[in-house]
Design a protein that fits this description.
Blueprint (H helix, E strand, L loop, with lengths): L4 E3 L2 E2 L7 H11 L11 E2 L6 E3 L16 E4 L5 E6 L2 H23 L2 E5 L4 H4 L8 H4 L5 E5 L1 E3 L9 H8 L20 H17 L4 E2 L6 E2 L2 E5 L23 E4 L9 E4 L1 H4 L4 E6 L5 H7 L19 E7 L7
Parallel strand pairs: 2-3, 6-16, 7-8, 7-12, 12-15, 15-16
Antiparallel strand pairs: 1-4, 5-6, 9-14, 10-11, 13-14
The structure holds the ligand O=C1O[C@H](COP(=O)(O)O)[C@@H](O)[C@H](O)[C@H]1O.
The site of the ligand O=C1O[C@H](COP(=O)(O)O)[C@@H](O)[C@H](O)[C@H]1O has 13 residues, from loops.
Organism: Prunus dulcis (Almond)
GO molecular function: 6-phosphogluconolactonase activity
Keywords: Hydrolase
Length: about 325
């Protein structure tokens, strides 16, 4: 695709600058929409990347005709159903681009949280025309709702997945992609990421929820496993009940790899907009339970998902087949 990625920062895992100074470095360096390569010694959490645009052809950008949208009574929860996964991807691109425009207009920045897994492929249309050129990528700040404790170039890395499938195709400033520090232990990486978020909240890059006091990301783009897990919050695991921490770690994930870090529910549910994107028949049963249409012996994490402004479930026909 002619897409070039250059690792730009000098990683400083052993002797990082203080977070506040590394943050200053990155925020100031990211004021230009195409940030130059940075060769400062910065905390690895503020990894700097450089992206080169690619050209793609994309016809018939919006065809959400098969969408059946239903707002659930009395809740800020919507379900949008589509015939195919392709239509989900088309709709998700427009939905995300529209929210980007809204938040850039309202607050001059757009804070977007990515998950790993199938979500990244579902974002593919956003890196194509018309959005590739119409979205103000310079205002995007990108975070991860969960990450595996592996090196960033490891096949299991959610960062690598997003980089290869989406981030390397759009010109988001290098200092605004907040990868997790892959040189730290699970506990260390979770603490480091939470500290990073706190600095960005202080600077109002990330908003704060007036209701909960937790960070209020503009949009989280989430996926759900067939077992009903989201982020790295798994059914029956005590982390599902965490009430205080923003970011925590799990060392016994039932889905490999076992060590991960994850946002907690107070942070996830404080997001302005949460988009849960689910496709495929293998998830139909969990979708049914998560949306309260069937019972399960234990509460699935996906059942606990909400949002401050609006939660939308984007489903293809297969995922919605038990509803
Ligand atoms: O392990 C993970 O799984 C979930 C779901 O992945 P999917 O491939 O079934 O969509 C994902 O959302 C999460 O970020 C990831 O770490």
């Amino acid at each position: 695709m002619g897409c070039a990625l250059r690792m730009a920062s000098s990683m400083c895992a052993t002797t990082p600058l203080s977070l506040s100074s590394s943050l200053r470095t990155n925020l100031s360096s990211s004021r230009t929409s195409r940030a130059p390569l940075i060769s400062l010694r910065v905390s690895p959490i503020f990894q700097a990347l450089s992206f080169q645009s690619v050209r793609t052809n994309f016809k018939n950008p919006i065809s959400a005709s098969a969408s059946a949208s239903a707002r659930m009574a009395g809740q800020n929860k919507k379900i949008e159903k589509f015939e195919t996964e392709e239509e989900v991807a088309v709709r998700l691109a427009k939905y995300t681009a529209d929210l980007s425009a809204k938040f850039v207009k309202e607050r001059g920045a757009f804070t977007v949280v990515l998950s790993g897994g199938s979500l990244i492929d579902a974002l593919r249309k956003l890196a194509e025309a018309p959005y590739k050129d119409s979205v103000d990528w310079s205002k995007w700040h990108v975070f991860w709702v969960d990450e595996r404790v592996v090196k960033r170039d490891h096949v299991d890395s959610n960062y690598k997945l997003a980089l290869d499938g989406f981030l390397s195709k759009v010109p988001i400033p290098t200092g605004q992609v907040y990868a997790i520090n892959d040189a730290l232990s699970a506990e260390g990486a979770a603490d480091d990421y939470e500290t990073c978020l706190k600095h960005l909240v202080q600077r109002n890059v990330i908003a704060t929820s007036k209701t909960t006091g937790f960070p209020k990301f503009d949009l989280m783009l989430l996926g759900m496993g067939p077992d009903g897990h989201l982020a790295s919050l798994f059914p029956g695991h005590p982390l599902v009940n965490e009430k205080n921490k923003w970011v925590t770690c799990i060392k016994d994930s039932p889905k490999p790899p076992p060590e991960r870090i994850t946002f907690t529910f107070p942070v996830i549910n404080s997001a302005a907009y949460n988009a849960m994107v689910v496709t495929g028949e293998g998830k139909a049963s969990a979708v049914c339970t998560a949306l309260g249409k069937s019972q399960h012996s234990e509460t699935l994490p996906a059942q606990l998902l909400s949002a401050e402004d609006e939660l939308t479930w984007f489903l293809d026909k297969s995922a919605a087949s038990n509803l």
